[in-house]
Amino acid sequence: MHELRRHALLSALSAITVATLLTTGCSASGSPSTVDKAAATTAESPEPGAVEEQLAVVSAPDGDATPTAVADANAVDQGKAKKSALKVASYDRKSGRAVISAPSSSAASDAEPSATPSESSSDKGSNSDSGSDSGTDSGSGSNAGTDSGAGSAADSGDAKSKPAVAVGDVIASAPAPGAPDGVLAKVTEVVETAADGGTTVETEPAKLNSVLGEGEADGTVPVDPSTMKVDPLVQGVKVSWAKTGDLTFGPEGAKLPLGSLRIDVGAAVETAPGAPASAAASVEGFVQLAPEVAFSYDGSGSGTGSSPGGAFLGLTGDWASQWSLKGRAAGSTDGKPIRIPFAELHADPVIQVGPVPIVVNLDLVCYFQVEADGRVTVDVEQDLKGDFRVGGNFTWAKGWQGVSESNMSGEPLKTTVTAVGDVKAAMGAEATVGLYGTVGVTADVAPYLRAEADATAEGSADGTGSATGSWALYGGIDLTGTLNLQLSIFGTPIFQTKIPLGALHEEWLLTKGEASTSTP
Description:
This is Lipoprotein. The protein is built from five helices and 26 strands. By secondary structure, the protein is mainly beta. The radius of gyration is 33 Å and the shape is elongated.
């Protein structure tokens, strides 16, 4: 009997050992199994959210390919939006009422595949993981509808009875009907759900940190010059641009660098009172820009609903201009320079920050400005090249601060200065950069020419005398601007007054000369 019990016990132990070996996959050599390695890796990996996500900053795809992003109020990782197949069908900025259209049943099936007992995990396709990858998705149109985000209520089979979004969800959308500046709004009330899955909701403005969460992003996105709307303000304005695959050349036949916008202008300037007809004043030349939107965001350590640790919004770009001032220009008006805008430009580029489409509102007013004493007659021309960077930068240590940087240099192409006096003329651009229809940064980039002439004369009773004169031509740049209250859209503390960017003034000598005459 004891022998039978002993035999049964050994058999049971052998069965347990075999089962353990089969379960763990332990090899005869004693090396760690694949399962053991996976378990060790899982144990060593940080918890989700422990490492901040680096979000790509790229140009968003055009049209319907631009995805919507939705931050689910009921998600574990609140404040982190996911790419969604939902669309803003209409939006009323005054009332905040919006209609959110749900994807078609086929799109919903693609966005949220319904698992069935007969469906194996390998048959679900790569879309089943789109939610975890959406944070690093660059926003290419190929996967624009793969994740319904908070709109998972629009699952196939029950799309008619459930609203597309819920109270507390935050929606970020590219320009939509009624919202040419895009939508960044939080749902405050679900008003109605239509049979087709569309949901009417009440909203209120939201902050960027409610969709970017604790992620990090840093990058610049070029503005496609062909998308800029140009409104000439004086006669003689000509616009040309160049971009990849579609070259357009300047009026003078010069080839533009890719991604550049060029504006040529020639206009008369008011002549000083009493000036002869031969001293008629005019400005002629061109401004060439390759603007880029600069955006950065640091949500690390901010926590749900808290302000981000850092942010930047600004405009950078390459600048080139070649222009001339001729004649005897009028003096200042009421102590202020005479400014003549000659073109207004507007664009609403959409940049993709991770899964979130961010609509940037860019306005440029190109102008020339003359400040003169009405005595000196000039014929001067300057070729100027360089770059600039303006914007607002936020850190917890210093709050919002202006950024004004420029690296420009020029050379004279023509210099003639007669008589005595001073004149300063600029051909510049006033730029305004905002997000979702709010003004954030206003900057005035004004490269200029300044000419000054001086003379002394000596005479005697016998009619003899001499005169000597000197002149100098300078190039320079004035860069000024302000930060506006609406930069609080980042979720940073609100400041009560506009903050100056901090004026930048640089000047360099282009050329100078002297002359002398004597009478017998």
